[in-house]
Specification:
CATH architecture of the largest domain in chain B: Up-down Bundle
Distance between the termini of chain A: 100 Å
Strand content of chain B: 5-15%
Distance between the termini of chain B: 126 Å
Main location (chain B): mitochondrion
Strand order of the largest sheet of chain B: 2-1-3-4
Shape of chain A: elongated
Structural class of chain A: mainly alpha
Strand order of the largest sheet of chain A: 2-1-3-4
Largest interface: A-B, 49 and 44 residues
Order of helices and strands of chain A: HHEHHEEEHHHHEHHHH
Subcellular location (chain B): Mitochondrion outer membrane
CATH topology of the largest domain in chain B: Glutathione S-transferase Yfyf (Class Pi), Chain A, domain 2
Oligomer: heterodimer
Number of strands of chain A: 5
Largest sheet of chain A: 4 strands, mixed
Keywords (chain B): Membrane, Mitochondrion, Mitochondrion outer membrane, Protein transport, Transport
Helix content of chain A: 40-55%
Number of helices of chain A: 12
CATH class of the largest domain in chain A: Mainly Alpha
Number of strands of chain B: 5
CATH topology of the largest domain in chain A: Glutathione S-transferase Yfyf (Class Pi), Chain A, domain 2
Number of helices of chain B: 19
Low-confidence stretches of chain A: 1-24
InterPro entries (chain B): Metaxin_GST (IPR033468), Mito_Protein_Transport_Metaxin (IPR050931), Sam37/metaxin_N (IPR019564)
Pfam families (chain B): GST_C_6 (PF17171), Tom37 (PF10568)
Structural class of chain B: mainly alpha
Strand content of chain A: 5-15%
Largest sheet of chain B: 4 strands, mixed
Helix content of chain B: 55-70%
Chain lengths: ~300, ~425
């Protein structure tokens, strides 16, 4: 047996030596292009096209901070307030801090965090042309603090700050949700602001309306802990909240007796601006009635509109 | 009898953990009534959810919810203390009310309902003591589900052992941030690190899910307690008043639920005792002032009493400080209706309770019930079609019942074929005959 193996080995060896050179010649003949094709490909590429233009909507200039908010095309060019309180809060806050920025209409789908607003920081020419990471709203304050040229907006150290902030985040927000989304008389408004820009298809619009409405309803259900909520209670709660905030503001210019507007003013203004806006298109606006009882709150709102918008 | 008519009735969820009620808002309402109308009201344990609890009946007026009871008291001048406050203090009181309502509920949700050990060993048994048998299957799970939706965004679910099966849901990675089992990569990394000497860095210790959830819980608790401690300061009550005010009652309602229950995981109470002594003193002060301690078994003994006199006698013999009465006896039809609605709520889509907004203009019927209407429509069309085909009213289009292959003779083609065959046969026959 060993003898046999030896013999077979020796018989294979010469063949193995021959193999590489043989396949090399074969490969050349298989993969080499036929002469007519090669002539075409020698001229390749025939024409080099220019790179495609960026889409019309793509930002032309990146040297300015861009805040993506819910707004319309023409209101964005005029720098008008956004129609969404969450966006308007940060828009106002950025105005307070004196940063120059412009707003563009956007939707939740455009945002990396799934929520508007977010800020696309400007790219200075010294840096590479790559865009910086966008900044979601919950990091905006930190970002502003890191900017050198921006005057910092000091927050009050008042121990009651948290308590009063909860008035805005709960009572007024809940009343707002009810008034805008769950009040049938205002549904044309929701349709115009949030639904129509998304789609022109009636069925899709129906679905979006339904989603918005159930999201607002879920929010109210969650905080009430039951699925029975009285609209009267919501408005009573909001009325008390306005009363408390009016007492807090008193005759001061800004909340907590500060010399300049702060984030609290911005978040309160985000609601009052829209509630008291006659051109907003409210069909049913009980909050306006509650708010106009307090002249100092109305003045506070008008002061911000005049100075910053 | 005149005094009899003047008594108010306060309907609350029954007692637990040595507190008048298992619900914080009900506790606050009891505190408020004990403060303002002591001995002029009755406590009635109930579990019905038709009206939001606490539910106060004062003569003609029926009021539900703590804030509405407070408004009622102010309007009826039952509590005049808050109107004596300066406007600034009143504003503070309102702001604190809103703060407590929003923040404290989250903490209670986590501590009593989301933390599975606490729910299984404390909250659930407390409920089963005071609820009738059928409500035990619907009310506690419902409250737990509500608590979980309220705390979902906080990412503290790792303290909830019961949600293992929910991890199969297709959530994007990193949705909950902490508390999730690290996936495959972590597993392989661990294998690889077996080759190296094991080293626990501070960072790796902090990143373990059970620890990071604890940090998160402490952060949430701090966000609630710190502002309160600062506002309370050295004062006896939040607004610096002589006696407790409306907002103190509310705060007591929530703090007592955090402090007094004996729980297997009592991080909340121990945090309070360790770091926020002034709040503990505040809670104990109000409890002792208003005699709010409740013996659950004594209240449950009242359930067995037959008459009103017996209830009063029992109450006096046991020296119960709170004016407890027995719950209104439930009839068979009522029980049946409750069971029916509880089962109906379990039906997906159709039975899922939707928001009922009272005192407001309703959306058109079609808009409100679009999903249930469309589902009912599709289901009934499908059912009607099935029945029609099953009974033979509607026949599914099909060919001849018997298909014969290889037809050759004309007589195979039914009547006409036979007739034709007859003609055809006639020919040769005639021919033969001719």
């Amino acid at each position: 047996m060993p003898d046999n193996d030896k013999r077979s080995d020796t018989s294979i060896q010469p063949a193995a030596h021959n193999l590489p050179s043989k396949t090399a010649t074969n490969a050349r003949s298989i993969f080499a292009l036929p002469a007519p094709l090669r002539r075409i490909f020698d001229k390749f590429p025939l024409i080099t096209y220019d790179a495609n233009e960026l889409p019309e909507r793509a930002p032309k200039t990146r040297d300015e901070h861009v805040l993506h908010v819910f707004t319309t095309e023409e209101e964005a060019t005029r720098g008008r307030p956004s129609f969404n309180p969450g966006c308007l809060k940060w828009q106002t806050y950025l105005r307070f801090s004196g940063v120059s920025f412009r707003t563009v209409p956007s939707s939740n789908h455009a945002s990396p965090s799934g929520m508007l607003p977010f800020l696309q920081p400007a790219v200075t020419s010294a840096e590479s042309n790559n865009a910086l990471d966008p900044i979601p709203s919950n990091k905006l304050k930190k970002w502003l603090a890191s900017q050198k040229k921006v005057k910092s907006v000091d927050e009050t150290a008042d121990i009651r700050y948290e308590a009063y902030a909860s008035l805005l985040d709960n009572r007024i927000r809940k009343a707002w949700l009810y008034q805008l989304y769950l009040e049938p008389r205002n549904s044309p408004l929701v349709q115009r602001l949030y639904v129509a820009p998304c789609s022109s298809q009636p069925l899709v619009q129906k679905a979006i309306t339904h989603q918005l409405r159930s999201a607002a309803a879920l929010e109210l259900e969650k905080s009430a802990g039951s699925n029975v909520v009285s609209a009267l209670d919501l408005l009573n709660d909001a009325e008390e909240a306005f009363q408390a905030l009016a007492d807090l503001l008193g005759q001061d210019q800004w909340f907590f007796g500060q010399g300049h507007p702060s984030l609290f003013d911005a978040s309160f203004f985000a609601y009052t601006c829209l509630i008291l806006d006659d051109a907003f298109g409210w069909k049913h606006n009980p909050l306006e009635e509650l708010l106009s009882k307090h002249q100092n709150l109305v003045d506070h709102r008008n002061r911000i509109v005049e100075v910053y918008f | 009898m005149e005094a009899e008519e003047r008594t108010m009735q306060l309907y609350i969820l029954g007692p637990a953990f040595g507190l008048p009620s298992i619900d914080a808002e009900c506790n606050a309402a009891v505190t408020l009534l004990q403060l303002h109308v002591r001995d002029k009201y009755e406590l009635i344990p109930t579990h019905e959810q038709a009206d939001r609890l606490p539910f106060l009946v004062d003569g003609q007026a029926q009021i539900s919810g703590y804030n509405n009871i407070v408004r009622h008291f102010t309007n009826k001048r039952i509590s005049t203390k808050s109107s004596q406050l300066s406007s600034e203090r009143r504003a503070d009181s309102l702001a604190l009310t809103s703060f407590i309502e929003s923040q404290a509920q989250t903490l209670l949700d986590i501590s009593l309902y989301v933390a599975f050990e606490n729910y299984r060993l404390a909250t659930r048994p407390a409920f089963s003591k005071l609820l009738p048998w059928h409500a035990n299957y619907s009310l506690p799970p419902k409250r737990r589900a509500a608590a979980r939706t309220r705390t979902e965004h906080l990412g503290v679910s790792s303290i909830d052992v019961d949600n293992v099966h929910e991890d199969m849901s297709h959530r994007p990675p990193g949705f909950e941030g902490v508390g999730k089992e690290p996936g495959f990569e972590a597993e392989t990394k661990k294998r690889a690190s077996l080759l190296l000497p094991k080293k626990e860095t501070v960072m790796s210790l902090l990143q373990q899910p059970q620890h990071s959830a604890v940090f998160k819980l402490h952060a949430i608790a701090e966000n609630f307690f710190e502002p309160l401690v600062e506002i309370l300061g050295d004062k006896d009550y939040l607004l610096g008043s002589e006696g407790p005010m409306v907002v103190d009652c509310l705060l007591y309602g929530y703090l007592s639920m955090m402090l007094f229950p004996q729980l297997p995981q009592d991080w909340l109470a121990s945090t309070m005792r360790r770091k926020y002594r002034s709040l503990v003193r505040f809670t104990e002060r109000i409890r002792d002032l208003l005699a709010l301690e409740t013996n659950v078994d004594h209240v449950l003994a009242l359930y067995k009493c037959k008459s009103r006199q017996e209830v009063i006698a029992e109450r006096q013999s046991r020296k119960m400080p709170l004016p407890w009465t027995r719950p209104s006896p439930s009839s068979f039809s009522k029980t049946f209706a409750e069971i029916r609605s509880a089962i109906w709520e379990q039906v997906p889509i159709l039975g899922t309770p939707t928001l009922q907004l009272h005192n407001a203009k309703q959306f058109p019927f079609l808009d409100r019930n679009l999903s249930s209407i469309s589902i009912t429509f599709v289901a009934s069309v499908a059912a009607a079609g099935y029945i029609a085909i099953r009974t033979g009213t509607l026949v599914w289009p099909h060919g001849a019942e018997v298909q014969i292959f290889g037809r050759k003779r004309l007589s195979d083609f039914g009547h006409i074929g036979e007739a034709l065959a007859g003609i055809n046969l006639l020919g040769p026959q005639g021919g033969r005959g001719g």
